[in-house]
Amino acid sequence: MQSINDDTCPSFEGTLELIGRRWTGSVVQAAARGARRFGEYRAMIDGISDRLLSQRLKELEAAGLIDRTVVPSTPVQILYQLTAEGQALVVALQPLSQWSLRRSGSRVTKEVPVG
Fold first, then answer.
1. What is the CATH number that goes with domain 8-111?
2. Model's pTM, two decimal places?
3. For residue 34, what are the contacts with CB-CB under 8 A and spacing of at least 6?
4. Which helix (H) or strand (E) holds 80?
5. Can you tell me the distance from the alpha carbon of 104 to that of 88, in angstroms, rounded to the nearest whole number?
6. Is-contact 80 58, C-beta < 8 A?
7. Taking the chain, what is the end-to-end CA distance rounded to the nearest angstrom?
8. CA distance 8 to 40
9. Residue 55: which of 24, 13, 91, 93 has the closest Cα?
10. Element (H, E) at 97
11. Cα separations in angstroms, 7 against 2, 10, 12, 13, 93
12. SS3 of 70, please?
């Protein structure tokens, strides 16, 4: 039997830490739903500050999950898009998202009094 600290564990934990940061899941989801410009992300994610959105986009770019493209126009446009790895992450997270929805739905059902 392999130890819990085998070679896959640190990589998996790093991924969970990245995705588990506040607002990161929302940023990834906004990208998956078609957000490209900073303002589109901000409009899709209620409550996120500009500073935190900028930080999360930079982190996701550094992790290779989002590409940042500068369009040399007047004014300069900056576009963000999921990379192939980012798209693969969205696909990998879908079962977890579905599980979360089922789980939250079952909690609501348990809390509602019957009769």
1. 1.10.10.10
2. 0.80
3. 40
4. strand 77-82
5. 25
6. no
7. 50
8. 35
9. 24
10. helix 84-111
11. 10, 7, 9, 11, 21
12. strand
Give domain limits for the chain: 8-111
pLDDT along the chain (115 residues), means of 10: 66 86 95 97 97 98 97 95 97 92 71 44
Tokens representing 90 are 């969205």
Exposure string for 60-74, b = 16+ CB within 10 A, e = fewer: beebebbeeeeeeee
CA dihedral of residues 3, 96, 32, 90 (deg, nearest 10):
30
Query: What one-character DSSP code corresponds to residue 73?
Result: S
Q: Please name which of 85, 101, 19 lies closest in space to residue 56, comparing C-alpha atoms.
A: 19
**50-62 and 24-32 are packed helices; what angle lies between their axes, rounded to 10 degrees?**
80
Distance CA 63, CA 14 (A): 10
- Report residue 12 as tokens: 């998996």
